[in-house]
Amino acid sequence: MSARTHISPDTIRSRFSAAMSAMYRDEVPAYGTLMELVGAVNRETLAADPAERARLAANDDLGRISEERHGAIRLGTAAELHMMRRLFAVMGMLPVGYYDLSEAGVPVHSTAFRPVGEAALKRNPFRVFTSLLRLDLIADAALRAEAAALLAARQIFTPACVALIGQAEAAGGLTDAEADRFVAEALETFRWQPRANVTLQMYHRLHDAHRLIADVVAFRAPHINHLTPRTLDIDAVQARMPGVGISPKAVVEGPPTRKCPILLRQTSFKALQEPVAFRQGDGWEDGSHTARFGEIEQRGVALTPKGRALYDLLLTQTRAIARPAADGSNAAEYMAALAKVFAAFPDDWATLRSEGLAYFTYSLTEKGVGATVGDQSADALIAKGVLRFDPVVYEDFLPVSAAGIFQSNLGDGAAQDFVASPNQQRFEADLGAAVLNEFEHYAAIEAASLAACRAALGKAVA
Ligand code: OOG
Ligand code: NI
């Protein structure tokens, strides 16, 4: 019996995200244009800010700054979500967080499959925001039954992909050659299907119930609906999109521009209308569908539950003053309200830390290395100059922002009033696992870094 040599799930994830990127650029040329713009803005930002460049060079692979950080898909059934969890697990991507979007008028609930742990995130941070359609929120019982039957009959994974997932589980990993085959097979699930699974008439019925239902039910597979590179200056990319011929959504989602970035800021270009062939007797009929877009993100520090509560409060206050209209007519008013209300959120690292609003990692300063320091609090050690702290990057998503991204891409008027009905238990039963708690993950990173400093100093640090 020959021994199997497995490659790291991080390597499989890197190959997968690179393959997705190439496929998507090919499928959606406007996305390639966005990538070029992001690359240019990132280069200019780094050239103008040598300190930021040095910081990123120390922490990150500078060459990979503009690469994709996430993508998104929408699934139709519990069985699909369950298999998708197993597929992502092969690449070291675990479900983190539960997002109920029904409250925001989109009939889905979601999680993010992502690497956890600093080392894995550093190797490749690619994640997939994964939503499950909630047919239970659709009022028309007959349509609901027809949609359920269509979904039950489709098979979104290739047989070879399912076999390789089983192989990875049984053997505890994949060999180099198996990983290549796995990536190629998995890619098929995310590929655009120019031929719909339904007639044009059925498509319209689904579409009239909700555009998102048509996007999921009318197709044979859950096409990747966007990819999202990281930008170092989201305001600049937003402003320059029209200049390269792409139309941005009305407002940047998330917190306003700040000195100390928090959480996540996102914007996207509007989804494109693409030709689709619909079933008609034994042949096909021409039509179109609007679903796929491009997005960019800029990430800041992860907030503690206390900091997040403040963020949520200020966002609610902002939206009470102005709710961003889909047509962009009040974009300036909304951005002004956001900036004004968020003035109440401390904007220096020291206060964010001392008030327990954000997570930080601790390390010893040059002065602290080898120092003998008495039993003092972390605050005192920082004041003495032996301990330093750096922000922990937020790796998750924001439900109000996600709803804004959905809505701008489903088209104006896509928001419907659903009774808010978070159902994490049902989601986890469908997933076949509990989702991980994002706050616990950040708290553990912070605690581990402090414990390491404590051990190095040989004294308890409170
Ligand atoms: C997902 C929208 C959410 C984000 O970045 O918040 C998202 C979707 O449109 O399927 O990707
Ligand atoms: Ni996104």
Secondary structure category: alpha+beta
Specify the number of helices.
18
Secondary-structure element sequence? HHHEHEEHEHHHEHHEHEEHHHEHEHHH
Low-pLDDT regions? none
CATH superfamily of the domain at 9-300 and 397-411: Uncharacterised protein PF07063, DUF1338
Share of helix among residues? 40-55%
| Strand content bin | 15-25%
Mean pLDDT score: 92
- Remind me, CATH topology of the domain at 9-300 and 397-411? 2,3-Dihydroxybiphenyl 1,2-Dioxygenase, domain 1
What does it look like?
This protein has 462 residues and is α+β, with helices and mostly antiparallel strands. It has helices at 9-27, 29-48, 50-59, 78-90, 118-123, 141-153, 159-171, 176-190, 200-209, 211-217, 234-240, 305-321, 331-341, 349-354, 378-384, 399-410, 424-431, 438-457, and strands spanning 68-75, 94-100, 108-114, 127-133, 195-199, 226-229, 264-280, 283-299, 360-364, 387-391. The chain has a domain at 9-300 and 397-411: 2,3-Dihydroxybiphenyl 1,2-Dioxygenase, domain 1, CATH 3.10.180. It is 46% helix and 18% strand. The strands form three sheets. Strands 2-3-4-1-6 form a five-stranded mixed β-sheet. Strand 2 and strand 3 form a beta hairpin. The mean pLDDT is 92. The structure holds 2-oxoadipic acid and nickel (II) ion (NI).
Strand and helix map with partners:
Blueprint: H1 9-27, H2 29-48, H3 50-59, E1 68-75, H4 78-90, E2 94-100, E3 108-114, H5 118-123, E4 127-133, H6 141-153, H7 159-171, H8 176-190, E5 195-199, H9 200-209, H10 211-217, E6 226-229, H11 234-240, E7 264-280, E8 283-299, H12 305-321, H13 331-341, H14 349-354, E9 360-364, H15 378-384, E10 387-391, H16 399-410, H17 424-431, H18 438-457
Parallel strand pairs: 1-4, 5-7
Antiparallel strand pairs: 1-6, 2-3, 3-4, 7-8, 9-10
Helix pairs in contact: 1-2, 1-8, 4-7, 4-17, 7-8, 9-10, 12-13
The chain binds 2-oxoadipic acid and nickel (II) ion (NI).
